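Input/output pair, single chain:
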Amino acid sequence: MTAAVTAPCDNPFFARVWPVAAAHETEAVRALRRENLAGLSGRVLEVGAGIGTNFPNYPSSVVRVVAMEPEPRLAARAQAAAAAARVPIVLTNETVEEFRGGQPFDAVVCSLVLCSVRDPAMVLRRLYALLRPGGELRYLEHVASAGMRGRLQRFADRTVWPRLLGNCHTHRDTERAIIDAGFEVNSSRREWTLPAWSPMPVSELLLGRARRP
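Output:
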């Protein structure tokens, strides 16, 4: 849920609540985070690193992670997590719009961030350009649900949820946006991380892998 395209990125309330939420993630979410990073290698770009929750999960086959976190309070926490990681992690406060990656990346990781960017289509096109041909987009994202929960999500998105939670929009068709940006989806599935009866609009997550042709 970390906003990746805001300049400047200043979310004082979200910067206070997100570290608490991240520290109390369910085991189901932690397992999905590990699965999202499993098997990565080479140079990796992580968008919206937050407080560095993913950093301990990168496999040793990753030679370098460039982690983007433009919210300064979250970035300070991520810096400490980067220092303790087993792979080299370089933190940048640039946004996707500003970032100039140089050499293409072998993979891009998005975890609970595409729900928060101002322009998902633009962000995904930019990430496509930053990947080498054949490179992977790994994503673990909030996703639009159907039925009653979908109606709850639309209500949340129209009211206070984005304003309080770093521009998080819970009812986005993220996988359609990924395909429209030119990616080929290799695998994806939806997972419930809270009981189906939970009133939270972010109970359902989408885990997937896509590639740049």
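Residues 12-212 form a domain with the Rossmann fold fold (CATH 3.40.50.150). The two ends are 27 Å apart (CA to CA).
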